[in-house]
Amino acid sequence: MYFPYFRGRQFELIALRELVENSLLSEQVIPIIEPVKLSSTLINTIEKFNEKGRKIALINNPQVGSLHMDLENEKNALLKEKFKRAVKFPVVVKTHVFNVNSDRQLTKGTTPLMTICKSKDFISAYENSFTDSKPEFNLILDESVFRRRIRDNLVLLGDKFIKLVRNTDYADIDEPFSDDHIFYRQDGYIGFADYSIVGNEFSESGFAPYAVAIHIVYFDKEKSLRIRHFVSDTNDDITDPANKFAEAVGKLVKWNKTAQLDTLGVKSFISLYENESYPGLGTVKKLSIMHHIELISRYLDKENEQ
């Protein structure tokens, strides 16, 4: 099983919603959302997964963002009520991230369906919290100290996206991305997780980039995942993002004549190129995410048939 982990930004949520709307999300995929803010997009996404009867994991103690403050703001009363209803849907996989407050946050008798442990300092909190009943999924880093002490229902969590300082730094790079989908079972895991083409790094604010970069994953001949970065050329300043996008997507379209990727995300990029349309940087990220998750969905479904 695959667990793509997102921080719940608008276009990440829209990517997931459009995948499930178009029946492109494998039942072997359970997205994880760490909600960083209270929004109608977040609620609509959960509602769409519920409508389609598809599981979605929701972190109930987000470690970043403003969700807790948003829930306390009286101006958000209506959204708060909708959110409280949504998190009770049967498709929602209640998820806990281990932290310094876990002993207080994990009330006795309550077992989350999924846990995430990313620090050695919190392994003992897991051991103290679960003796008899165990969570259905436990996400851990691929280190022996985690595997020795958290032994049940393990999911391998890794950040596969190599974050560079500037978009221009990605120019002409084609690099390995992941082979966890091939080896996770024989390594003793029941699933694998990553942060897709976004990466684990979290920032509250965005900025206008000098370059536009499109990140596209693909399978090599051994079925390992690689990632190719398509970057604009006119990158001296932040002006004319539409032209920068045209340069980057033009490189993607040219490359894909050989690669022959046909996911909805890639086909949407091709359509934008042919129509000389600029959708905005948020949509660029959305389509790259959609492509990645659809590609993995196809792989897992094919493996499941064998």
How would you describe this protein?
- The chain is an alpha/beta fold.
- The protein has a domain at 162-177 and 200-306.
- Helix content is 38%, strand content 17%.
- It is built from eleven helices and eleven strands.
- It has helices at 10-21, 40-52, 67-72, 77-86, 102-105, 123-129, 144-149, 180-183, 241-259, 264-274, 281-305; strands spanning 2-6, 32-33, 56-59, 92-97, 114-117, 137-140, 154-157, 174-178, 191-194, 213-219, 225-231.
- The strands form two sheets. An eight-stranded parallel barrel has the order 1-2-3-4-5-6-7-9. A three-stranded antiparallel β-sheet has the order 8-11-10.
- Strand 2, helix 2 and strand 3 (56-59) form a beta-alpha-beta unit.
- Helix 1 packs parallel to helix 2, helix 1 packs across helix 11 (281-305) and helix 2 packs parallel to helix 4 (77-86).
- The longest helix is centred in the C-terminal third of the chain and has 25 residues, at 281-305.
Helix content estimate? 25-40%
Instruction: Identify the strand order in the major beta sheet.
Output: 1-2-3-4-5-6-7-9
Could you tell me how far the N terminus lies from the C terminus, measured between alpha carbons in angstroms?
15 Å
What is the residue-mean pLDDT, rounded to a whole number? Answer: 94
**Basic shape:** globular
Based on DSSP secondary structure assignment, what is the total number of beta strands? 11
Q: Poorly predicted ranges (pLDDT <50, ≥5 residues)?
A: none
SS content category? alpha/beta
Continuous helix count: 11
Largest sheet: 8 strands, parallel, barrel
Helix/strand order, N-terminal first: EHEHEHHEHEHEHEEHEEEHHH
Beta-strand percentage range? 15-25%
The radius of gyration is 20 Å
